Amino acid sequence: MKKVQLSPPLLALLLAIALFLLGGVLAPGFVNVEQAINIVRLSAFLGIIAAGQTLVILSGGEGIDLSIGAIVTLSAILVFRIVDGQNGMVLPALAVALLTGFLFGAINGLGITALGIPPLVMTLGMAGVVQGSILVLTQGQLVGKAAPIMSTLISRPLVLGIPGVIFIWLALGAVMWLLLERTAYGKHLFAVGVNRTASRLSGVRVPRTVLITYALSGLLSAFGGFMLLGFTQNVFLSLGERWLFPSVAAVVVGGTILAGGKGSYWGTMAGALVLTLISSLLTAVQLPEAARQIILGVTLLVLLSVYGRQRALRE
Amino acid sequence: MSISLTARHIVKRFSGVVALAEGDLTVDGGEVVALLGANGSGKSTLAKIITGVLAPDEGRLEVDGQAVTFSSPQGAIRRGITAVYQELSLIPDMTVTENIWLNHEPMRWSVRVDRTQARRRTEELLALFQGAVSPALMPETPVAALPPDEKQIVEILKALSREPLLMILDEATASLDARQVSRLFKLMDAWKADGMALVFVSHRMEEIFRVADRAVVLRNGRTVGERAMSDVTERDLVTLMVGDEPSAAAVAQPDAAQPVDPSARPRLQIDRLRSGRVHDVSLAVHDGELVGLGGLRGQGQDDLLLAVFGALPFTGKMALAGEEVKFNHPRQAVKRDVAYVPGERGSQGLLLIRSILENFQLPSWVRYGTPLKMGQARQDAAQMGASLRLVMASLDAPVSSLSGGNAQKVVLGKWLLREPRLLLLNDPTKGVDVGAKAEIYQLLEDLRRAGTAILFYSSEDEELLNLCDRVLVMQDGRITAELSGVSLQKENLVAASMGAVEQAGDQGGSSS
Amino acid sequence: MSRFDFRRLNARHPYLLALLLLALALAVNYLLQPNLFQSRVLNSNMRTFLPLMILAAGQTIVIITGGIDLSVGAIVSLAAAVLVTNLSPDAAAGQIALIVLAAAGVGMAAGALNGFCVAFLRLQPIVTTYATSFIFSGLALWILPRPGGSMPQQLARTYRSAAPLGLPLGIYIAILLIIGWTFLRSTRFGTYLVAVGGRPDAAYASGVPVTWVRFASYVLAGLLAAFSALALTLLTSSGDPRMGDAMTLDSIVAVVLGGTRLSGGQGGVAGSIIGVAILGLIRNIISFANVPTWWQTLVDALIIITALAAPGLVRLLRSRRQA
Question: Tens of pLDDT along C132-153?
Fold first, then answer.
């Protein structure tokens, strides 16, 4: 990163700062340290949930994971139930949730690679299956309790008034960077995203790489659900659903190419900041939900037309 | 109504490379002109310019004495010019009728397609090939269900349905069987009698002699001659295509090949391999041997190389250094020190938007541990870049920023980093500048000396003649001739590629 | 050879599988609900299925051209919001016509936005229509902030109970949709749709205006979504800014169940209409089969995912057998 060039993540970060300052102009009292920390905290949850989406979109082949919302909810409900207020159960509960997410993600990957179901349809169908599993599991009764240690470590100020989730997010950022840039899997993921034929002809096992990617997406969504529970302290059936669209949007805003093969998790992190800021700003200027949705949709369309053009028929 | 078309001094360049330097062709209604030339001589380019698919850079086209410019194939169609191409323009899920009449359907009340009429006229067209196609080829059959020969026939009928004044048949007989070809020739005779002008591009000599009135010969993008078929021989035409200059002497021969020990186990041995377009190919390549695959494009060379590399399923036997192998995935071949340099650099060989470093290391990342030892990976890539004399801004620059020759060096380099024992190459110098070509030749020669077994397909006959110890000529998925030593001459190579087997030396197979 | 025969069979009778499934679903449903074929029950089923049938018809057209529209549900919500906020229970015929036309216009405009982005800007259809779905939902929420509104009572009553010749009105409309598609398919434009979805490059080489065909498919889907909204609001006599949301996935599932290939180039509206009927009957069966309440969503989703996986499974098994 020695180049002094506006890479998409940097651009998104600058956009976030500009939005924050704009907030100060539009809504007096918007710009202060507490608000800044709060926005980063909210962004952290979106950023964590969008981590798996980043991997899936990088894998190309019209890759998208629409089961993320449902897996977030399922994971939160599982943890809520297993922990039931006991600090000692947090780690086992996390393990169960992560494993469940991984398995659902792996099924997505199998359907996409072995059965050739388009990712959109497969993950959308899987979202239904996960929702159905939640209903079977809970029988409509959301019993349980988050553990006190979760809110202490996740959402309450931990060090210097900064909540733990922000540290966890930064750590995840580092892990994701390692995964993408310093493992053979990461290198293969980019390759598969750019050109599956060339990857295969270079000895890369394309289906395996894609399958792992969807499984990781399930795992990371489950982790997102766990973190979200530490924040909300409570669960409800549509807990994860409203994070789905922002998770796609954060990846796109962060400059990851929808066709796959180019992008970074840093970009998604900056994208999460931008989206959280837009949404906070719209709340601060007291725009109704309807307008917020429209503005989000238009923002994504504009960004898509900047980054996401497809090949012309005649070249 | 009859047409007269003249192409004068047509020039076409593709990103600086001259594909057609001076293409001249005249064809009149009521005659069949054969367009002849070796690989890369510009036949297809000239054909595509006449039908409006490509725009010429220089020169002029005249129809009935008037200069014309076609901005699209539609423009040419309006003047009565259509073409039958090898790469099919059919839509698999539509029926034969729908495909033939696509975009010029007979209409009823100018809203609805008149299916009855379309069906009837399709039946009339299909009747032209009655007896030469299976009874399952009906107007309502979806094209996807047809075998390749019948698809080609539908393509021919699609062109015919436009009632053209001039029809270009570009290798249209390549996938047809003998019966279908002879039917097509009878039809061509009839169309000719009706005043249609026909341009026939084929690589089969006997077909050209059977059907054409005149032959126009292209060499290196130039029209070098025109002969009436009645007063030429096969030999004359081959000489015209090859040129007068003594070919092999122009470029220095490699040092006499190291004598290959015939008792040593070959690095690669395949026995009766069938896959895709390959039928029953057997061959052996020894360590330190550079074996060429010749023949016209698309005779099964691609599929043969892909099958050996594990990228296409095959039947038959294959052994590496005496050990029988059955690869299901290129990865297994890579592990056994086999490397493949694909023909389409951009779509099969490179990750265009990724860095040079990542392209070099793509097959090798797993060797750098977890986390990857990037310092080591960079150093290895930099060394390889230096030894290939790769001209680049930095290892982090996207590979799309490189010239064709340098990009091809990256494709080669990524395999050289793995020190392959068997190197498969599919037309590696396509679109590569002269300087880089010479470097690639030197590289192959060095590898061969170092004991690498190389199997090398090239569309440029000169390369095969100058680099290879032996050349196996492929036609229709079979090896039809083997040239080596004295028989490895340009005339023989061209003649064997064109199916004129009796001139292909002593080892030629039988003509099909 | 057996593969060719299969393809031919499939091409000649593209709805064969769907019809078999329909017969099976009908039989099971009949066993569980013996009064299924009584006029009253039939009518109630048809009028419930109809909105999705209309919507799936539009989705079919988009999918055949090689696209997909994830915003059709949101367009239903938007058009429904336009209808229920502007029509009083005793609206006059002229007013009804005007508002229905307005809703149709809104649907087409929404489809035109999708079509513009996908065909002219060449944006990826999945994410594009996903993004526009937020715009349309937002607009629906703007027009109709909370569930409510009304529809003309007389018209709603007719829609719910009219049964010319003893058959439910819905059946006539479904047949009308199929006739409409058959007509469209018999025009040159109909050939274009299939050609563009099958092989855009070959279609382009044959002179088909690929971009405009893609654009038009989205506009048609938008228009049909508006008609779907009309049927839906007549059924419920009120509106909800989210009422179309769940219909998007169902419309895609119905299209796939009906034998239309998701990658485009093959299929038809009749299959999708059968697909909707299958989907509806499955839901009937689940509710009549005493599936425990909390299991219903899961069973439903599993059936759907199995149906979606079926073509891939068949392909996988066949290639295993050949290898």
Answer: 999 999 999 999 988 888 888 8
pTM of the predicted structure, to 2 decimals: 0.83
**Nearest 5°: CA angle at A131, between A125 and A134?**
145
Q: Which residues of A touch C296 (CB under 8 A)?
A: 132, 135
As a whole number, the mean pLDDT across chain A is 88
Residue A162: pLDDT band with limits 50, 70, 90? confident
Helix (H) or strand (E) holding A177: helix A164-181
Q: What is the mean pLDDT of residues B407-430?
A: 91
Interchain contact, C11 vs B73, CB within 8 Å: no
C4, part of any domain: no
Any chain B CB within 8 A of the CB of C199?
Answer: yes
Q: Which residues of B touch C (CB under 8 A)?
A: 72-74, 77, 88-95, 98, 102-103, 105, 107, 111-113, 115, 136, 140-142, 144-145, 313
Write the residue in C142, C298, C316 that is nearest to A133 by C-beta.
C298
Pick the closest to residue A210 from A186, A222, A192 (CA basis). Answer: A192
Question: A20-34, A132-146, B491-505, C240-254: which has the minimum mean pLDDT?
Answer: B491-505
Residue C175 lies in a domain: yes
Count of domains for chain C = 1
Domain boundaries, chain A: 8-309
Please tell me if residue C126 touches chain A, with a CB cutoff of 8 Å: yes
CATH number of the domain bearing residue C203: 1.10.3470
Q: Taking 80 as the threshold, does the pLDDT of residue B483 lie above it?
A: yes
Q: Over the stretch B111-166, which tens digit does the pLDDT of each residue have?
A: 888 888 889 899 889 888 888 888 888 888 888 888 778 888 899 999 999 889 99
A64, A56 Cβ separation under 8 angstroms: yes
Residue C9 lies in a domain: no
From chain A residues 48-67, the ones with a CB under 8 A of any chain C CB are 62, 64
Task: Please answer yes or no on whether B353 and A182 come within 8 Å at the CB atom.
Answer: no
Domain carrying residue C87: 39-310
The stretch B189-194 carries a mean pLDDT of: 92
Sequence-distant (≥ 6) Cβ neighbours of residue B260 within 8 angstroms:
B286, B288, B289, B469
Average pLDDT, chain C: 86
Which residues contact residue C152 at a Cβ distance below 8 angstroms, ignoring those fewer than 6 apart? C87, C88, C89, C90, C91, C96
Measured between CB atoms, which of B74, B91, B141 is closest to C198?
B91
Nearest to A132 among C200, C253, C298 (CB): C298
Q: Which string of DSSP letters, residue by residue, matches B141-162? A: SBGGGS-HHHHHHHHHHHHHHT
- Cα–Cα distances (Å) from C78 to A160, B462, C101, C139, in that order, read 48, 68, 14, 7
Which subunits count as partners of chain C given 3+ CB pairs below 8 Å?
Answer: A, B
- The ipTM estimated for the assembled molecules is 0.85
Q: What distance in Å separates the CA atoms of residue C143 and residue C242, rounded to the nearest whole number?
A: 12
Q: What is the pLDDT of residues C3-39, one digit of tens each?
A: 444 555 555 566 777 888 888 888 888 888 888 777 7
Tens digit of each residue's pLDDT (9 = 90 or more) over B9-60:
898 887 666 788 888 888 988 899 999 887 667 888 888 888 888 888 888 8
Question: Looking at the domain covering A8-309, what would its CATH class be?
Answer: mainly alpha
Residue with tokens 């796959």: A260
B74 contacts C195? CB cut-off 8 A: no
Residue C12 lies in a domain: no
CA atoms of B201 and A299, how far apart (whole Å): 54
Q: What is the pLDDT of residue C322?
A: 54
